[in-house]
Amino acid sequence: MKRLSLYIVCVLLTFSITGRAAAKTEYIVQKGDTFWEIALSNKVELDILIQMNSQVSNPDIIFPGQKIFIPGGKRIVNIVPLSPLEKTLFDLTNAKRKQIGLRPLLLDQTLLSAARQKSLDMMKNEYVSHISPRYGDYKTMLKALQIPFENVRECIGAGTNSAEEILQTWLSSSVNKANILDKESNQIGIGYAKGGLHGHYWTVYINQKAKGGN
């Protein structure tokens, strides 16, 4: 069986996003709704929405008339551990930065959630791009999630379950390398999803947190 091709894209995103989650507490599922769309329209994180609705046995299958609870007020950020593959990539990235005298990147839970959502979307919709065929470009997605970060760098890839390989492939590109080893960056979120056409999907968000910022 031929080895899956490795698809890599990395781009620098620079924009400012601020705001709060919508102040709704209850939603009745409509025909055609998905958890992803409900999360986007209500400006909440998908992971948090799913966790709040444990009464839904399969988040991929919801039906019209179901009651969905939506968090309101300030953004809720749960402490979620990295998966083994995500942890390996996290450690390798910081080890590489340490080799050249750069400070380590700190794991940010909001960036982690966004990265996982992006990888899951690529897996489910079988694409590898900064533009989702269903939800539009990444800026639209991140703004809809009210992610309060500036100077975000997004790296995406697919086709390998090796954290070492995905990192080395990114580092072989001058643009990717400059983004991953940016001396001003100090935050990271990593998302890995298994399945779909290419088997394995990766997203990394790297951010420069401004002094006094969120």
Automatic annotation (TrEMBL):
What lineage, starting at the top, does this entry show? Answer: Bacteria, Bacillati, Bacillota, Bacilli, Bacillales
- What is the designated name of this protein? LysM peptidoglycan-binding domain-containing protein
Q: In its keyword annotation, does this UniProt entry include Transferase?
A: no
Q: Which organism is it from?
A: Cytobacillus depressus
Q: Which PROSITE patterns match?
A: LYSM
Source organism's superkingdom?
A: Bacteria
Which part of the chain is the LysM domain?
25-70
Q: Name one Pfam family in it.
A: CAP
Q: Which InterPro entries match?
A: CAP_dom (IPR014044), CAP_sf (IPR035940), LysM (IPR018392), LysM_dom_sf (IPR036779)
Keyword check for Glycoprotein, yes or no.
Answer: no
Alphabetized UniProt keyword annotations: Signal
Q: Which residues form the signal peptide?
A: 1-21
